[in-house]
Structures are given as structure tokens and as C-alpha cells.
Hints:
The protein has helices at about 5-25, 210-220, 220-250, 265-280, 285-295, 310-315, 325-335, 340-345, 350-360, 365-380, 385-395, 400-410; strands at about 30-40, 40-50, 55-60, 65, 75, 80-85, 95-100, 105, 115, 130, 140, 145-150, 160, 165-170, 180-185, 185-190, 195-200. It has about 400 residues and is an alpha+beta fold. Helix 9 packs across helix 10. One of its GO terms (molecular function) is tumor necrosis factor receptor activity.
Amino acid sequence: MIPLGFFQVLVIQVNLILIQLRIGESLAIPLLSEPIQIRGVLAEKHAFVHLSGRERREIECQVGHYLHPNETHCCIKCHKGTYLSEHCSGSDKAPKCSVCPENAFMPTENNSPKCFACQSCRTSFQQIIKFSCTKWENTVCGCDSNQYKTTGDSEFLCKNCSDCHNGKIRQDCTSDSDTICECHRGFFLQEDQNKCLPCSSCNKEDCQEQCETGMETKRPSNSTELVSVLSFLTIMFAIGFVALTFRTCKKYFPERRFFSSCTSGEQLKKQLASKTADKAKNSLLDIKEETILGTMQVLPLGNSQGQELPDCIKSARETRISDSPVVLYAVMDAVPVLRWKEFVRNLGLSENTIERIFFDHRPVRDAQYETLKEWRLLANHDATMERISQVLSKMDLSGCIEDIQEALAKQ
């Protein structure tokens, strides 16, 4: 026979167990915690005591795997160049991977349901195909040789590299950047076009500094223009006066016209002294003859009077002039500055060569020297005093020939 107090004790114990179960559920006290290692899965199962007695699991996949959509297991990823066409049925099963179709690629391991489409190079932007599209790499577009990309994205435009006309190349053109130009004097760099433009077209502040020197040269003040005109008139008057004096002297003293430069100074003085004694009509005539003595020692190289020159003059004028600075400076000092470009142009230098030398050598005298050297180099054996004499005669500057001969005779 069961005691009456037994049922009461049993009810109390059952109530205590129910209370413990409720407390454990509310506090989420784990009763089981152990790591579980499955192929392709690094999962940790946390079991919690619920009223229903079920367990809840959280799965974390290893590198190179992905979680199945059902979140029940992990599957290995497909290789690059393929895409996922069917999931694996279990953690120990492989998924079904298919090769990317034509004009599609997949660059990495994946669980993507399709591959990426290959890009096309835009011929309207002058793009060309550098590397064709493969199963695992996209198309690589670029520019042709002597071209560069305007931007770094796929919508870049190919442009031709600048040739730095009217300037020189400071840095060569690359596939991603245009040529860096350095302009000559008298030109400024238009950055948006990367061109060297003449300073005469400068109308903005950004080119004022580059063209400051060139603009002063090309836009002289009124006073400078006046001085230039007066200098020109003075020189022309002096040249006319010298020519008139020379012609007058030849009219009154025709016998002195053909003195040879081969005659020594002592012989010349004796000849002049005897003729002066015979024709000493008045003191003014004596003064004129003594004055002409110094100017008639060296004869013009031209043969315009129809008389044949001595052999020594023929050989001298047909010999190529030396590159001695004394000879070059003698020619520079004799020819008027304002007619120098006309002089070297008649010698045979091109207009572009003359302008280039005058741009590179800002002092006028340095430019004169360089143009004469350039002509001597280009003319080679034709660079003779004969040629210089012909050009000066053509320019009606015969008086300059005597100046050159006198300067060389004093050396």
C-alpha cells in the first residue's frame, strides 16, 4: 500500500524539473558544445535545450567552398573559365561546372550561374585589340603606335602624339600620356592642344609670361621705330656719299683704277710720288692723291670694268674662304645690318634657316656670325670671295667690297 505522502513528493519533484527546464531555455544555457569537422565544412554545433528538445546548427564553409542554398552543407567552387550549372548534392559530392561559352569569360573561382560577357573595343574611338578575349580573361583594348589614351577607363579615346612643331620634345609620348613639348623663342605652349603657337596670337594672361621677351621684340614702341628709320636713312646717306666720292675719284684719277693688290706698298708709294710730282698743279690735288693712297691699295674683286685681274687676285678670289673669325667679322662689319638677311639670302641660305638662326641667337651680331658660318658649310667649295663680291655687286653695295679688302689687308 502506497503511503499518502508519496504522491505529494512526486508532484513536487516533477514541478522542480519543469522549473529547471524553463530556466535553462530562457537563459540559453548550452548543455552540449563540440566542434564538428565535415569535408569542406568547418562547422560548430551548439545544442540548446528547448521545450521541443531540438538542436540549432550554424555552418561556416572553408576557403574555396560556398554554402549550399539550402544551408545544409558546403560545395566546392568552380574553377576560373567555368561557371556553376548545378549544385552538389552533398558535402562529399562535386558540383557540375560548365566551360564558358564563346565571347564570355570567368576570371576567378566562383559559384556564379553564368560567365561575364567579353567587352568589344570601340573603333569609333580608334581603339584596337591588344589581347583577344579568352575563357578566363577579358579583352584588352589599347591604342595604335604613336597614339596615347586620353583617360584610364574603358571609354578612353586614342589620340595622335604631338610632334612639337615650332618646339622640341622634352619627354616622349607614352601609351598613357602625350608628348611634353618645349617651345622655341617667340612661341608659347597652348596646353589644351599641346601645340606651340606664335606669340602674335597670345591674348590671355597664361601665355603672357612665355611671350614677354618675344612680344617686346615684335611690338616695338614708336620711339624705337623712329630710331630704326633714322638709322636706316643715315646709313643709306652714308653709302650714297661713299659711292659718289669713289666715282668722283675714279673720274679725276683714271690711271689709278687698276692698281694690283699684288704690288708691294713701297712700289705703290714710289709710283704715286712720281705721278704726284709730275702733276702737282695745286695743293688740293696733292691732298686728294694722298687720301686716295690708302683706299686704292686693294682693288675690288669684281671684273665689271672689262679689265683682266692679275693671277694672284684670280687665285685668291677662287679659293674657299677660311673659317677664321677675322675673315667672317670683316664681312659682317662691311655689310649693313639692315640688309644682312638679304645678303645671306642671296648667298643661298633658305628663309627657314635664316629665321631659325635668328630665333636661336638673340643678339643680332651672333646671328650674323652663325648665318655666315652656315653658308660657308653648305656652299663648301663655292664659299669664295668671288661669290661674296658677286652678291654685293648685285645688291649695289660695291663699296662694301673695298671695306672687306681693307680690313683683311690690315690683319
